[in-house]
Amino acid sequence: MSELLERLANLPLRENLRGVSPYGAPQLDVPIQLNVNENTHPMPEVVRQAITEEVHRVAGQLNRYPDREFVELRERLAAFLGHGVTPDQVWAANGSNEVLQQILQTFGGPGRSLLSFPPTYSMYPLLASGTNTAYIAGERGADFDLTAEAAARQVRESQPSIVFLCSPNNPTGTALGLDVVEAVYAAGEDAQTVVVVDEAYAEFRQTGTPSALELLPGRPRLIVSRTMSKAFALAGARLGYVAAAEEVTAALRLVRLPYHLSAVTQATANAALKHVDALLANVEDIKLQRDRIVNELTRLGLTPAASDSNFVFFGGLADPQRTWEALVSHGILVRDVGIPGHLRVTAGTEAETTAFLSALERHLGTGQG
Ligand SMILES: *Cc1c(COP(=O)(O)O)cnc(C)c1O
């Protein structure tokens, strides 16, 4: 143990923080970063200009606290979502991780539980632990599928306070049918379970894959979570948001810190939302690269999962750790999510995708894949 870790262990830490490491994928300085599902396309110049001007404008007012209710931003987010969502039904924070934490602070806590279905977003158990909420790991079928029937049965059995459904799911990439969300919501009637659908990758979904936003009317325990970190290419700005019944957003206000969304964050997000079309223009190209990865990996004899997101989860590797290292040696960073035989890769620009595919093909050709 390093001397610092020893000193840390001597602190009067909360029990559930003992021996824990901070969450985060390795941040290696390699040229092609396809490991954390960022949008790798450059920010369009028109959006960059708009953000710069808007931030310059508010910089003159930074002596004042920002609009605590971020009214303009909620209006713009509601307009973007459509589906009849009103500004009073929208709530935002510094990344969807913060909104998810606020949901746990509001509806979880000691004596309460969170159910989700691994493999899924690895932050869920950590957010549960950080709020002293019991974490229940549900089960998926073979091929990591989750049927309405199996999900509803597990909700009835465990009576959780909260369920997180990730759709499209990270790391597998596949979206859930709305029948799963409906069944989980209905199964949570007795326990008054709050159902959160994390749609961080919604903008990349295949044509015909619906959003859980459609299910909001008449379902006051349903929350749909989105982020500007992926399709909007604004991971660095930290802006995540949810749509839910007005009483749910009123409840989330009970735990938010005052002025949690800085004036700079609000200005950045508002400026970006004035240019949604320019910002999302890259999404179609990313979807093309994603489909190209799925096709090429299949041709190479690997088994990619169907993807509604900007990344591809693929199996069929004899030694994923070795493949990961071989790709790093070519300057390409992908994600080892710890599932035997599998890796996850973000769809990059056309050039990045080409570099990934040819490095992988060469590596597999060595017979060490
Ligand atoms: C990337 C990601 C998020 C986004 O987190 P932010 O805090 O908004 O950057 C949320 N959920 C899932 C499943 C993700 O993969």
UniProtKB/TrEMBL annotation:
One of its GO terms (biological process) is L-histidine biosynthetic process. Its cofactor is pyridoxal 5'-phosphate. One of its GO terms (molecular function) is histidinol-phosphate transaminase activity. Keywords: Amino-acid biosynthesis, Aminotransferase, Histidine biosynthesis, Pyridoxal phosphate, Transferase. The keyword Transferase applies. The modification N6-(pyridoxal phosphate)lysine is found at K230. Pfam families: Aminotran_1_2. Residues 32-360 form the Aminotransferase class I/classII large domain. Its EC number is 2.6.1.9. It is an enzyme of class 2 (transferase). InterPro entries: Aminotrans_II_pyridoxalP_BS, Aminotransferase_I/II_large, HisP_aminotrans, PyrdxlP-dep_Trfase, PyrdxlP-dep_Trfase_major, PyrdxlP-dep_Trfase_small. It catalyses: L-histidinol phosphate + 2-oxoglutarate = 3-(imidazol-4-yl)-2-oxopropyl phosphate + L-glutamate. Pathway: Amino-acid biosynthesis; L-histidine biosynthesis; L-histidine from 5-phospho-alpha-D-ribose 1-diphosphate: step 7/9. It comes from the Bacteria. Homodimer. Belongs to the class-II pyridoxal-phosphate-dependent aminotransferase family. Histidinol-phosphate aminotransferase subfamily. This is Histidinol-phosphate aminotransferase. It comes from Zhihengliuella flava.
